[in-house]
Design a protein that fits this description.
- There is one protein chain.
- The protein is mostly loops.
- It has a domain of 31 residues.
- It has one helix and four strands, in the order αββββ.
- A hairpin with a 6-residue loop joins β1 and β2.
- The mean pLDDT is 83.
């Protein structure tokens, strides 16, 4: 089994890990309805992609109607 001959310094270890940082997710806005969405994906609110309707958007009734409580 391979074993390191010398201890890796904290500086070398941290330089290797410099690219491991998490970046926040980027959002774009739908041109049709203005809702925030992930770039290069279908808008969940209205179902459009690049200005064309590709699927039916989700309405409030799909989530259980007016009495549906998101908070809990």
């Amino acid at each position: 089994m391979a074993v390191p001959k010398f201890r890796i310094s904290a500086s070398k270890r941290d330089m290797r890990r410099s690219h491991h940082a998490l970046v926040p997710r980027k959002y774009g806005y739908c041109a049709a309805c203005g809702e925030a969405k992930i770039p290069h994906s279908i808008c969940n609110a209205c179902g459009t992609y690049k200005g064309k309707v590709v699927m039916q958007g989700k309405a409030k009734s799909d989530f259980g109607g007016e009495d549906f409580n998101i908070e809990g």
